Fold TBC1 domain family member 15.
Amino acid sequence: MNESVRYDRCQQIQLGVLTESQMSAGEEPPPQPLGTGNILFTHDGVLLKKASAEHISDLNTSGSLSLVEYTSSELPRRRLYLEWQPNDSIMIADDSQDQGDWALVDRISGRNRTTSECRAFNTKPSEQGNGTPARARIMRVLLDELDAVEVRHRGQTIRFIRKSGGGVHSEFFFQHGNADLFVRSMRDLHFIESSETTRGGEEYAILTTENQKLKKTFAELDIGDIKSSHLPRESWLPNKLAGFLGNIPDYVQPPFQRSPKSRPGTLLSGDRQTSPDNYQIIGLSGSTNSACSSNSQSRGGSADKSPADSELENLNAQDEKIVNNLPDRQRVERGLPLTEAQWLEFKTPDGRITDSDIIKEIVFRGGITHGLRCETWKYLLNYYHWADTEAERMERRRLKSLEYYNMKAQWLSMTTAQEANFCGYRERKCQIEKDVKRTDRSLQFFAGEDNPNLALLQGILMTYVMYNFDLGYVQGMSDLLAPILEIQVDEVDAFWCFVGFMDMVFTNFDMDQAGMKNQFAQLRRLIEFANAPLFNYMRSHDSDNMYFCFRWLLVWYKRELSNEDVLKLWECLWTRLPCPNFHLLFSVAILDQETTVIIESQYEFTEILKHVNELSGHIHVPRTLEIAEAIYLQLKASETLPNDIRLIIGEPLLPPVAGEEPEGALDEEPTYSDDGFDELVPEPTPEEKQRQQALLEEACERSLFLTYH
């Protein structure tokens, strides 16, 4: 996993807990509220590694790191705070009710993380037993009290340095390796500027409030548009500054035309205009400064550069870094599906499957003929093993059948009193019953009232709750199971194939949606590198959070495609070729085909979301797979492919630069504390195993009797 980031554009929150003295000292909130905070951006999966003594109990705890802006009528100006809050104080709740069609993840609300979930997410279990969340332990510091930011260990660690004394205020380890993205967010909002690159990493100076305003002023001058205009230079700058200095009497602003081929922040070679040798610009203080053009400088002019000139040069440098010299895309063609005759050629006399890599390559290229899917899917989803003989497969299926019915017996034998006293089970059962009634009812396999296949669908989902109770059931899982059950028909086979599929996508259903956020960040990075024009457009329209792809990634395009196309796409993705994250490149390919429409139509975020939803039923899967593979090959062939992209597409990482610490080399490696994590399930003795097996077999027999008699 690479990164997990959320951009909350000025989301308003009431942390209302600050006094003047405590706001400066970063102390715990007082009883009376004073300010309202706007979250500018926040990142999840951030471990607190170093802090003051009062936060020692939270060291090595995962949380969220945010930059929050506080405003109040009682304060003379805004105040920016860096805030970190541990995840273990956050309740699991449905926060997607306002997302309309996105609201597929609907976890059981009001529960704390289980012990096993705490182990998985490296957090500490709640010490309260009544289900009431502990009061949030927020670490907060005024940004003006910090002097610098250090990014270390190849974008995994951030250090904040105090102004007073120059010591370390705090250090954070980003579990998804996205510390550089947090810094980029601060830089984009003009809170920091690059200072120097040291052997240990990069250092950024935190700007004072006055310098922040100055940087923001230059950013708002639309210099990218100015550079691509055809106006003489002496005419545009005074007008752009006029908006900041007030009205200028007897002045009419000339029309401004943007080059249709230019993107914000890009200067096209055809748009260059020769400015006069000498020109006047109005300074921010109201004075008039004289400057010389490049022609006068070539004649030996030594006039100092104005702030506007410096800003123009900085923007030019930033633009050059954005442009990626990617090689041309290769032409890719799809192949024919795997046939019965080909499949038999790979079978040995004792039933083993040879050359599984070649089989996966054929499946990736062309899919599988319909009649062969039932058997082949068992291998792709790790239910059957390629190297097993026929006899070994039969024995494996017998044991897996016994295990399935053991788990099924557990929920079938649940009494009314048990269910009444088991809130988590009861709520999961209720959600499953609701979702099963509306899953793929338009398909013949699930159509009609009293359809026995609906009972199979519900039974498998209920058994999965017993198999993985920490995850349980989340809305959207029924969408993933339905096509598998349609092909497998047998409930045992469908269950274990579903388990294999869930092993690939279980992070989609994280209680804090960290897995989805990580995929959004990876998708954002892929588009930034592979489709710079679209990325720059979306970023300039606050649409680069990729949230409009939520439904695509959550259920692997199930709701965008016809049933047959879903089967073709899934079996292609299950091969994990050409890289494990190929499902993200499929999203990149969809957006690649819609780039012209989105940009030329000047879509904002809402229009992009609407347009994406309207693509349902209109995505050409073979063509999109070809484009996705072509993009993969294009990225792979790039000589300037950075390590974060290499990590996403599964390419070997580049060796560290000379003098730079190797990746993963930390001063203090993140550790999983044993505090509060005793062995979850102690190993039973042989006698206990035998007794337990006898009880389970009896339960299995009884469950079968109750089910079929």
